[in-house]
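Fold this complex.
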Amino acid sequence: MPTLLWADNVSFRYAPAGPQVVDGVTIRISDGALVGILGPNGSGKTTLLRLLSGTRRPSSGRVLLGPDDLTNLSRRDIARRIAVVPQETELAFEYSALEIVLMGRHPHLGLFTVEGPADIEIAMAALSATGTAPLAGRLFHTLSGGEKQRVVIAGALAQSPQLLLLDEPTASLDLGYQLEVSTLLQRLNRDQAVTMAISTHDLNLAASICRELILMRDGRVIAAGPTNDVLTPEHVRVLYDVEADVHVHHDTGHLTVVPVRRVPR
Amino acid sequence: MSIRRRIVTVVSAFAVVTAVVIVWAPTVGSTSISLARVFDTSIPWADNVDAQIFFVARLPRVLAASLVGATLAAAGVVLQAMLRNPLATPFTLGVSAGAALGAMLAVIFQLEVGVLGISSVPIMSFAGSLVAIGIVYALASSQKRGLSTNVLLLAGVTLNSFFSALILFVQYLADFTQSLRAVRWLMGDLDVGSYRPIVGAAPFIIAAFAVFAILPRTLNLLSMGDDVAAARGVEVVRAQRWAFLSASLATGAAVSLGGPVGFIGIIVPHLVRLLVGSDHRIVLPAGTLFGAAFLVMCDLLARTIMAPLEIPVGIITALIGGPFFLWLLVKKS
Amino acid sequence: MATGKKIVTTENTKVTEAFFLALFFFVSSVGYVVNVDAQQPKRIVSLVPNVTEILYAIGAGSQVVAVSSYDEEPPAVRRLPKVGALMDPDTERIITLRPDLVITYSSQVDLQSQLTRASIPFFDYRHGDLAHIMATMRGLGERTGHSAEAEQAARALEARIDEVRARVKGKPRPRTLLVFERDSGTLRNIYASAGRGFLHDMLEVAGGVDVLDEIDKESAQASIENILTLAPEVILELRSADRLSDAAMQTEVASWSSLASVPAVKNHRVMVLVGKELTVPGPRVAEAIERMAKALHP
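Structure:
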């Protein structure tokens, strides 16, 4: 599988004299992959995602999208190829679901270009793909948590990206909506060949849909590879200082992680 | 209806209404005049009272009101989007406080730096607004990451307080008549009596609108959040810089022309959004047009309701703005 | 023996009576002297510049010990300590000067209550019409023990005013816009006399009619439309300044030229009078009226 995104030994610190929030991380995301970036809070996941999306520039190392270094690309160029789904979306004004999804077409439009029929088609397709087409005319703030998140994902899809980066996509959702969204992501990846990288601290979400995992702690990658190989009780203990029971669930066929007790470092 | 069609239709509707208001307003006032006489070129200028009332008293006034109203409304729209806050006004970031301080200094120190028929007060007030813009911009840009809206807001609010204190101090030093003049300036005055102040303010306002013309879609994205906007391809810092500078420059020019007329920058954007939604490609031009018409009407009320006495136009906008917000509050709850 | 004692006792009573009688007269005469002094305040502090001028005009100048920050006339006051003005009276300083009379504006209620607490008498002044100037003169004359001089000064003023009245009697009275405030170089923020108050009275005496009479207020902002409609025959501007350069004077007069249909502009009857005495309701008001009359009726 060709490499879509390659973070080559990237490091980042927020303040000149501050700690390395991301420390010498190397990641390869292949075309069509569904990768989970897993780690506790403060492990540098969110910052890494920012580096991968080009929102921040690494203090050392580089991020390559295909053959291009992200720092050489304009925001527009990046946005045409990489889309980001944030954890939560707070709107200052009232927009309809369709308007929000159409905003995803921005990187493909000229300065004074207005969205044409083709763009509207792409937006409606994105809404359909996330099962939210009937909500197109509804105001965003009237939607449920799950519906909102699906509309935002549709907005990211409308960017026609090669890579979708998601930051804690289910963290603020109820269990039912978590299932809804995680199933959707899996379907998009499988049926529409959307490459995805999901940053999360939810072990079971990662286990259920990601085929590969990258485990992070204190800004460093401690393990990376296929989920079944990487998600072991040993690694869970290193990551979370927790003794856990990891086994395959008989109904779903995925690994599940059940925490048992805390253990000292 | 396609998006482009919708934008054009709605904005055109606003344009028609505004044009009607602007054409109609100079024909009415506290004195009744005959339009036939106004345009009768056979009557010598010095004898044509009706024409003078129309061309010297009313028309400059209506044009000034249109310019100031359009500008304050547009600046309000831009700043609300940039700060992601529907309660932001063109005066939130300290520009009008700087303008007010400049005006006070001109009144109290009786600086006679009038240039080309524009008195010292508008010139000093514009200078004051530039100083305020400079300070706020410098403070907000001192962050390594470029322009931070939080710091911008904080700097603006702080500057407002600081300049207001200075204004009080300067008023304290003034004698009674000067204080009166200063307070009167704060209430807004559009009776320019000449086209020169309008021509003086216009270049800055036109420059700002040139920037406004390319902002609308970016404003839509900015209003969703910095990270989201960046992920959708917006150069966030650059966009915020342009938005802040253009909106502030325009506000400074408008305030130096007509004084700090309040409520336009917040009522008009709100009303327009209630009518047409939040797409800034419609809200910005529609707001501009509606702002012009709105202030022209307020000024009409100001100069006719208690004729021959004039009510300062800022009082009219405040009397309308207050109840409007009460109504908004009731409606929301 | 009893008779002798009785004689001595009567003698004692008489002496005692005489003593107390003398004491009574002494104390009451002292009291009388104190009262007379209270009618002649020795230490006057004045916060109102035009009243300061009045005090000097009625001969009470030597009793003035401090004045307001804006006092300039007569020249003698420039050496005196300053104690603030309408908005910012320096109460501490005033009380430290131990005045026995303080001239205050009637709106300075805080100051007045503080003076009352310190048992310092004050004089409550409020601007009024032309006649009020003379009334204030007479009132202060009594208060400061200069009734005769005050009467003389007031009468002299009244005489001069009557002279002007007589001179302009019978002449046509032009409708006049009496402007006392405007943004220089432009026609913005024009404030004019509007039918009442001492400026209005001055105009009437000088032989003019207030074009904004109907409004019946001490001052009003005149809009351009208003001025064009009312079409005054004379525009008389009062500038409270020492002087105006020729170039500046030309600019100011020329500011009105855009109102071409106004008779005052057409007939070149736009006049700017410059002088610090023009808008002061005090002893120099007669000069001001004379100058105005000269301008209206050369």
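Chains A and C do not touch (no CB pair under 8 Å).
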